[in-house]
Design goal:
- With 133 residues, the protein is of the alpha/beta class.
- It has helices at residues 18-30, 44-48, 65-76, 93-101, 113-124; strands spanning 10-14, 34-38, 56-60, 83-88, 105-108.
- It has a 5-stranded parallel sheet.
- It is globular and about 35 Å long.
């Protein structure tokens, strides 16, 4: 008899706010996701280009233009199949226009981590959990 273990969805959470990232990571791990946190936004492109793809990358809108370009290049070349969620600190008219025309998800961060967790689950599904014995 063989048993197949369902792969846990991998989530990247990249933001400079260590407290928010810690709360988000804790909540997502409680739900069954495998979470990588990143407080150094310069590392995001390298993490996304790694050998183990993420199912979703929730990335701060504060990512510098070079990092944004590197990620978009990976996506365009088909080297990255990760869904992107742009974490917005403040909604301004430019962000709303971008949100309306781009295939990239946006989420306004707040202290309500539950809303973020629901947004993640809506994109990648809820992980299968083993029954507790």
């Amino acid at each position: 008899m063989t048993t197949k273990t369902a792969r846990r969805p991998r989530i990247l959470v990249a933001h400079k706010n260590a407290e928010w990232v810690d709360h988000a990571k804790t909540r997502l791990e409680q739900m069954g996701y495998k979470v990588t946190d990143c407080l150094e936004l310069d590392w995001v492109a390298d993490l996304m280009g790694g050998s183990q793809p993420f199912d979703l990358a929730a990335i701060s809108s504060e990512l510098d233009p070079a990092g944004q370009a590197a990620i978009m290049k990976m996506i365009k070349e088909g080297r990255c199949v990760t869904r992107l969620m742009l974490l917005l600190d403040e909604l301004d008219s430019e962000s709303m226009l971008f949100r309306g025309k781009a295939p990239i998800l946006t989420h306004r961060i707040s202290q309500d981590i539950h809303e973020f967790a629901l947004a993640v689950a809506a994109q990648v599904g809820v992980p299968h959990r083993k029954p507790e014995v």
